[in-house]
UniProtKB/TrEMBL annotation:
Residues 6-242 form the NAD-dependent epimerase/dehydratase domain. It comes from the Bacteria. Belongs to the NAD(P)-dependent epimerase/dehydratase family. This is NAD-dependent epimerase/dehydratase family protein. It comes from Niastella soli. It holds the Pfam family Epimerase. Gene3D superfamilies: NAD(P)-binding Rossmann-like Domain. InterPro entries: Epimerase_deHydtase (IPR001509), NAD(P)-bd_dom_sf (IPR036291), NAD(P)_epim/dehydratase (IPR051225).
Length: 315
């Protein structure tokens, strides 16, 4: 049996912190090396090894992979949709070159498995709005979506040509209470819980009727680990899998919060992120993931809202 040594790149981000902690529970604290551009992370302190790495520095990354005897890499470092529209060149450069650096090192060092997330942002205005299928018209209009779609094909290419076992999910907007989100269009659905508890009111940067696909972080972490642990024969999609959990609008999430905080109020001041949200599907069909490796979400809007508010109150 292989003794896994896992490198998480972008471990200090919204997903990275929770994924690192979950992987450490499974594989042992010292076998999961957290890494990020950031020097340290309060939430990861004392839980296992942490190294400062720039994924753009391929040589430094390569040395760490060899030195730490890495067998699996989870690449989470990226620039998300809203920040990407402010700096398209930087987003393209990091999202593409970071992935190519990891795929190249994986090929050279015979890394056993690689995980890299894509996003619902691959879809564009010409994709179906409801139950958007795995394979459909895909014409993204954000630099983030373009980089994710190109990245999906690089993953497929490295798998076909070099047999790198790279796996991927198209995450919806992710909602969590541990680590703050990093510049996405779906971030409102995290901010709203914080503001509801602290201020009892929230100004939303999307219109009240903007439906988007969303997922609670425990489901996203479980989906990631289930995909990575599935036998290779069950993985039919080597670009990236649609995964889905729920779909709601700002008006609906505010109604769910009002069940717990009746005095909560919301108003709407849409900004540049509205057109990004309008370009994405409202809901996703994840039948292929369900059939291939048994994906099934656990959280809906109400179950998530109860859990988010309880955990944020405790913090
Ligand atoms: P995040 O912005 O919260 O975290 C990214 C981390 O990468 C940060 O800690 C940052 O310091 C680090 N980083 C940036 N540049 C780096 C570099 N050059 N070298 C090393 N580290 C660097 O992002 P996230 O929300 O945790 O997203 C992780 C991945 O999941 C990304 O690929 C993102 O596109 C994807 N994704 C996220 C969501 C979501 O809702 N959060 C949805 C779909 C897809
Ligand atoms: N949550 C992400 C974003 O809004 C979707 O990939 O950018």
């Amino acid at each position: 049996m292989i003794r896994e040594r896992i490198l998480v790149i972008g471990a200090s981000g919204q997903i990275g912190v929770e994924l690192t902690l979950a992987l450490r529970k499974i594989y042992g604290n010292n076998n999961v090396v957290a890494s990020d551009l950031r020097e340290e992370n309060e939430l990861l302190k004392g839980t296992g090894p942490y190294v400062s790495i720039d994924v753009m520095n391929k040589e430094m990354l390569h040395v760490q992979v060899i030195r730490q005897n890495i067998t699996q890499i989870y690449l989470l470092a990226a620039i998300l949709s809203a920040t990407g529209e402010k700096n398209p060149n930087l987003a393209w450069h990091l999202n593409m070159q970071g992935l190519l650096n990891v795929l190249d090192i994986a090929r050279e060092e015979k890394i056993y498995k690689v995980y890299w997330p894509s996003s619902i942002a691959v879809f564009g205005p010409t994709s179906p709005k409801q139950n958007c299928p795995q394979q459909t018209i895909i014409e993204p209009t954000t630099v983030y979506g373009i980089s994710k779609y190109a990245g999906e094909f690089w993953c497929n290419y490295y798998h076909q040509r070099y047999q790198v076992d790279v796996r991927s999910l198209r995450y919806p907007g992710l909602i969590s209470y541990k680590s703050a989100p990093g510049g996405g269009t779906t971030d409102y659905a995290v901010e709203i819980y914080h503001e509801a508890l602290e201020e009892k009111k929230y100004t939303c940067f999307l219109r009240e009727d903007t439906y988007l696909p969303m997922m609670y972080m425990p489901d996203a972490i479980r989906a990631t680990i289930e995909l990575m642990e599935a036998p290779a024969v069950q993985i039919s999609t080597r670009t990236s899998y649609n995964v889905s959990a729920m779909s709601f609008s700002p008006k609906e999430i505010s109604a769910a919060i009002k069940n717990y905080i009746p005095e909560f109020t919301i108003n709407y001041e849409p900004d540049y992120r509205q057109s990004i949200a309008d370009s994405w599907p409202q809901s996703i069909d994840d039948a292929v993931a369900r059939n291939d490796w048994g994906w099934k979400p656990e959280y809906d809007l109400n179950k998530m809202t109860k859990d988010m508010l309880e955990n944020l109150r405790q913090q």
